[in-house]
Amino acid sequence: MNFQRVYAIAARKFASLRRDKRMFGFIVIMPALQILLFGWAIGGTPTDLNVVVVDDGPAEQSAIFIGYIEGGDALLVSYSDSMDEANATVENGASWAVFHLLPDGTISVVLDNSNQQVTNTILLEVRDAMQEANGGQLPLDIADPIYGDRDPSFIDFLAPGIMTLVCFMFSTILTTMTFVGERHDGTLDRIFAAGTQPSEVLFGHLGAFSVILIGQVAVVIAIATLGFEIPINGSVMLLFTVCLLLGWAAMCLGLAISSKAKSEFQAMQLNMPLLFPALLLSGILWPVQALPGWLQPVAWALPTTWTAEACRSIMIRGWGLESTSVQLALLINTIFGVLMLAIASRTIRVRQS
Amino acid sequence: MAAISAEGLVRGYGSIPVLQGLGMTVDEGSIYGLLGPSGCGKTTLLKVILGFLEPESGTMNVKGDIPGSDVGYSPQEIALYPDLSIAETMRFHGRLHGMKADRILSRQSWLIEFLDLPEPNRPVGKLSGGQKRRVSLAVALLHEPALLLLDEPTVGVDPELRARIWNHLQEIAANGTTIVITTHYIDEAGKANRVGLMRDGILLAEDTPKAVMDSQSTSSLEEAFLALCRREVKA
User: Fold this and answer.
1) CA-based Rg of chain B, rounded to a whole angstrom?
2) pLDDT per residue over B187-206, tens digit each?
3) Smallest Cβ distance to B75: which of A7, A190, A194?
4) Three-class SS of residue B203?
5) Which pTM does this prediction carry?
6) Which domains does chain A have, with CATH numbers?
7) Contacts of A11 in chain B (CB under 8 A)
């Protein structure tokens, strides 16, 4: 490998990237915007859900129960004397649930169960209020968790996955167009005529893109921690390293796609069937363990699955480099990246007519 | 001495045959004009010389470190980054050839002067078609290679400058540079030391321009080519 040539190619690419001001803004701002939108849109707890209380319960217990649910953000409580009237509000969509406080101290809940997340929020609130009303005497004691908070929020689970996804997606998109055109209009031919090796071309491009990648990963981690106060219990440097390595693997994927694609349209088309499974199968939105058995091997073939797992281990469990999940993520991303580079290298070496 | 010698070259793309048993000899320190209609296989032949394409059969021997710094290649397309300035383009290709910064600069100023190029900070994408073509030629000449492969370098270049380019090529050929040049302007190929008339993947004739014209009893290369084509069709 001739480093002067690698440097020449990196310097050329970086000059091009920097010159395209709109593109430069896009690659810096888009990941930030995306992680902000994810943080705002997904994983928050629903608030101000309308519920109706029909109070036929023992006075003291009812007062504590009502006091509790009135005190929280989750529910907006109104009252009714008649169950028929209360049920009607659920039927016409004005409220999500009716709590019927019964004389024996039990509660009957009638739900509009059309939205699982809403139901979960309501039932969690009912459970806590019941516990309060019964003097904290449920025959169930959940000890302090070993990992995670006592009150886990969905966003804490989601954030490591979303960070993984954003790093993966933008690195792939950034590099997908690299060789489209250059391969067919003689530009690469001219470079190869100078004796440049495909690997030198690829490493040169990776070098230029890495400057952007480092910035993107830093922005993503900063927004997650500072903007959404998502705790990082483990090493921030290790998290940075894992995300960076995934970014590199994704760039190698992008370079491989771009070496195969004959047009920009084709490059985008090749991107879609890769990015969508990465979103759905990597345990980012939903646990991999919930996938049908035959689909699980596919999930574990994606570097994003391992990276999301490692990011959760670092951020929530506070694990370090000694953990298998982190080691595997580093290893799998390296293997994936090298494999993609090999494909890209083979493909750009083959000359077109 | 032959800088390039090929025998019985066969090469196609998939099932489409392009070169069909082509032989050619290019002497060191000479200009070789490769003539023929588009689609006859000129560019494919250049790519076999460059080592980009393996012949399916036949041999191709090229002197020197190719691909590498012994060759200067100017593709038929402009094949330059439009967002880079002329100076950045020179620096990029100079670095690929391992040239020192001061040598790149001195070659650059000479080439800008010689090829009548605008100031070096102008982006290549903003130049006219003829100017782009001259930058493309400048990149091939930049590192003063022993072998120049120029695919249609004079398209859209005005006649005065075209004559100057040919003068320069003749000068460096006299100093030992080997040049293979493809062109549509059949008459300008009269200035080459030897011409190869190519059609359907073979050379119909390969000789000095004068000998080619004499053999067909014509007074121009154009007519000689036409006569050769007619004879080929009859046969």
Assistant:
1) 18
2) 889 999 999 999 989 999 99
3) A190
4) strand
5) 0.87
6) 3-42+153-349 (no CATH), 49-133 (3.40.1710.10)
7) 92, 95
